[in-house]
């Protein structure tokens, strides 16, 4: 499918203060269909002035009584209405995502649309359940005076939300749904590669009845529009999902401005197979952990640790899965893996595979581009039988590239798994509960899965240890991210 086959209108403007708008100087940039390399749209390249207008609109909407002082049940109702609209327009949104991002249409429907609806409904429920506590004070002065003290959770204010391109619609919803539930207003900047579903989401929020300025979308480059948004004095809270490299830049700026910040960053997640695990289950689990969404997953299981006696069998099994994977357009029902998101990213991943080979890794499967137009990389398995310190073991690839390493005892596997600057996700594969729990205890990661990988749920907190981030999304934990605690002390 190409631009002309997409029968819906593609919205290509920013959405600020309840209206579509171009950038102030009318500059635009192109977005592409990664399966073909064809241009599908031009969207505004926001200037500092555009960012200022969007933040000003969000500030105005925050200060007005039309959002944060709405009865929480009204905010809940609007979020539920948005969920219904996303569901009702699901086929269009899914096709738009596949056209712009390249993922399989089935995953766009199930995860981008289905996940967004699920998160919107879950977070809508929180709007009416935000609560503080009463506190008994020990103050004994002045004599005879008593105190009544309590805490309240109040909205953090104007939120700048910056998201990546791997799950464009879902990542946007992970930010906006809880922020809006808490009474914040939002300026969202989608990734430059994948802005189209975020623009449509803002339009649907408008249709749902969100007041102007409550939810705005600006499009633009990270170093310009993104940076201007982060440093804008009208922003109270920055929530960022993206690379650790950019997370450090944003964290530094927010520290300087004393802005609240949440960072969901990169990963290099280990998959640890124990020797009692059925080999076929290990093979399917390891392949799913790395190849899902073409490896463009922050928790992708990119390091595989296998008992030495099973190494060849399991690595060859995952390699077979890779070799048998059908590459193609996400719209083709026969396709099992689509393209990477951009030519730049494809070149980066190809470069890291070449470096892995040059440093002594053995390419057991894949490594090429599948001889296709578009931004394809074959699912790739690199055997690192000698446990060499390959760059591809250390650095995040964010593509369908697995490096497999043998180990002799579990302690060694755990030490290797933890020898990473990242700590986002990890999985262990075994039938023995006690052994699973010992690995769960020892692995440094925000989420540890047992006999599964990459599973997320709106009720389960998610985030990183170490360089994988600061803060947690989802569940009750998310309320802390979008509210401040206000203590109230009454003398009587
Ligand atoms: P990226 O860091 O290059 O870009 C992410 C967003 O930041 C984009 O919108 C970009 O425009 C913006 N940006 C870039 N430079 C900026 C700057 N100086 N100031 C403000 N904004 C700026 O990341 P990416 O390549 O789009 O996404 C891939 C990365 O995201 C991977 O590292 C992946 O692990 C990570 N990720 C993490 C999670 C998580 O929950 N931990 C989820 C998904 C993706």
From TrEMBL:
Its EC number is 1.2.1.39. InterPro entries: Ald_DH/histidinol_DH, Ald_DH_C, Ald_DH_CS_CYS, Ald_DH_CS_GLU, Ald_DH_N, Aldehyde_DH_dom, StyD. It holds the Pfam family Aldedh. One of its GO terms (molecular function) is phenylacetaldehyde dehydrogenase (NAD+) activity. Gene3D superfamilies: Aldehyde Dehydrogenase, Chain A, domain 1 (3.40.605.10), Aldehyde Dehydrogenase, Chain A, domain 2 (3.40.309.10). It comes from the Bacteria. Keywords: Oxidoreductase. It is an enzyme of class 1 (oxidoreductase). The keyword Nucleotide-binding does not apply. Coiled coil: none annotated. Residues 24-488 form the Aldehyde dehydrogenase domain. The active site is at 264. The keyword Acetylation does not apply. Belongs to the aldehyde dehydrogenase family. This is Phenylacetaldehyde dehydrogenase. It comes from Paraburkholderia caffeinitolerans. The lineage of its organism: Bacteria, Pseudomonadati, Pseudomonadota, Betaproteobacteria, Burkholderiales.
